[in-house]
Fold this protein.
Amino acid sequence: MNLRAAIIAFSILLSSAAWAAPPFEVEDPMRGPTPIAEEADPPLISPIENKDIKRMRTYSMQPPTIPHKIDGYQIDKNYNRCLACHARVNTEETQAPPLSVTHYMDRDSNVLAEVSPRRYFCVQCHVPQAEAKPLVSNTYQDIDGILKRLTAPATDKK
Ligand code: HEC
Ligand code: HEC
């Protein structure tokens, strides 16, 4: 057998082995046990949490999540529904928290009179939350917990 024939024979062997192999044993938490070649039934859309209770921020520079529904709120170049409540001048009437000063800063940290264009499209950073279990678990630790561990006296460390 010359080299070329050997390579062809080997690749035929390989591909038939691949076909014969059992299907992948991967279970994706988002599609469940449905095999790759089949289509899963899409899960129902979870309701949006609308409790009006501010949630804790996971770290100080986290954009706070939105604690109310935003269905149908218009945000485009003509109108920004969020600012109808959250703009400084409207907060007395609406009792919504005003935007923080960072939203008025341009990228060189100059404070502008109006909301900076880079903070105009609120939902780039702020999102409402669904009443749903997380699809993927994680091992995130709060910095307060980490600091406590790091600064604990050596004898307390396990
Ligand atoms: C009808 C008035 C109103 C509109 C419109 C509105 N909000 Fe709010 N928002 C509030 C009020 C009032 C609160 C305080 C908590 C509560 O009552 O829900 C709040 C809370 C928030 C918070 C939480 C702040 C924090 O410190 O935790 C965020 C973020 C937020 N809104 C973003 C938005 C975004 C983005 C939009 C537009 C898509 C929007 N809001 C539209 C009234 C409004
Ligand atoms: C580029 C990301 C980004 C965009 C766009 C943005 N924000 Fe924020 N927002 C943040 C971050 C980060 C914080 C928390 C730190 C801070 O205050 O800057 C925040 C804080 C807030 C807070 C809480 C303020 C406080 O003092 O507790 C409100 C309310 C808010 N944003 C509303 C809005 C609204 C309404 C818009 C749209 C007009 C918007 N944000 C656009 C990132 C963003």
